[in-house]
Amino acid sequence: MRPLEILTPLVLAIYLLHPLTGKKRPPAVGILPAFALVIIATHARVEGMRWQMTPLYAFSIATLLLSIPAFFRTAHNGTPTGQPLRVILNLSLLAVSTALPILLPVPAIPVPDGPYAVGTTIYELTDTSRRELYSGRDEARRFQIQIWYPAEAGTSAERAPWMANADIFAPAISSYLDLPGFFLDHLALVKVPAYKDAPVAPTDEGFPVILFSHGWNGFNAQNTGQALQLASHGYVVVGIQHTYGAVVTVFEDGTIARNNPSALPSGAPDDEYEAAAQKLADQWAGDMAQALDSLTPRNSDIRSPFYEKLDLDRIGVYGHSTGGGAAIQFCGTDARCMALLGQDPFMRPVSAEVQKNGVRQPSFFMFSQEWADLVDSRNNKLFDPFYARCARTYGALFIEGTAHYDFSDLPLLSPLAPQLGLKGPINGKRVTAIVNDYLLSFFDMTLKGIPTDLFDPPSPYPEVKPK
Known about the structure:
This protein has helices at 3-17, 27-30, 32-46, 54-77, 84-103, 166-176, 224-232, 270-300, 322-333, 352-357, 369-372, 378-389, 428-447; strands at 117-131, 140-151, 159-161, 191-196, 207-213, 236-241, 248-250, 256-258, 310-320, 339-343, 362-368, 392-399, 464-466. By secondary structure, the protein is of the alpha/beta class. The strands form 2 sheets. Strands 3-4-1-2-6-5-9-10-11-12-13 form an 11-stranded mixed β-sheet, with helices on both faces. Helix 10 (352-357) links the parallel strand 10 and strand 11.
């Protein structure tokens, strides 16, 4: 819960508990229900109202209305109000009213610990050399990228939203998670510790660039916490929104492109499924290539905010799930990739050629325990021989207690994330610390030449095991 959301029930609890003292309720306590309404009004202006707070709003109003006669009665005759059973009942109702906003909080993306402030901006790209495969229309491939980058500190006061067009994204994510459409409407209130369109920080040698590819039915901001961490340490991170593979894409002209299930046909025979998956990975690898192509003119155009700020000779790539497979496909076919990291990489989209040859770049792979434990899965049977053929690997490991979405920001949606299938039993802050350490250390080592012994076994984290 946010600060004013926490303060409201605390104020009401003080008011409701006072009768247990057996003393006359002083005016300072008697006006607390009115003060709670003032807090709610301030909360509405500053933090923004949300439907999960409705029971608490209603309880606050009811408490105020009931407090008015009690206030005047105490003022006139000085008798204490309420009995223990009534106090217990009222506190129980307050607890029930507060439970929903606790279980469905406004997610808070962690503040990164690097020396740079972080800026972010969104671009729309059209690749006329490729046709769209999944729209049902003869048109050029169109997609979006979101860039997180080191920014000049104190130059912009406008915090960026976690996701643009949250009014469209939130119902789409809810539907994917089999939740009611309104369930995640409060995601529109999430602000991240980054500044919208802030000036890029000065640099003498240019910042290395890291491409990120999301998973099937994911979105480019699903790993914002990791992007912020990397950007705060001097990287430009480009998150790619893979149209028709993402949960939804909203273009500048208002066009809405929802996920096309036929692009990755669930339940299809293995050969048909893998043919479709490899076509998808080629399209996504093409998005990565086009994203890189689009950075070259931005780096050389004096009117661009990224003018001479990018080091396009130091390119890292990472991806989650299907995006991890697409990252492998890209690095197996595009020499501009200088380092590859996969998070639960989905191998079935990777072409037979790349699987056979492995990748030449430095590579590292992280798995959830959920995926690593499926020893006989099709994914593991493809990954293991591929990994053996990779030339310069820094390991393949898994983190005990993790599930597939522990590599993303989705566990922040609720303390009930394990019950919703959004994370494993491991503490969320712990897994974030582990993943961020390996992520940053790997790219520091491969793109900046910063030495580390993190990849030397055994891991300093007891939860980390070799795959």
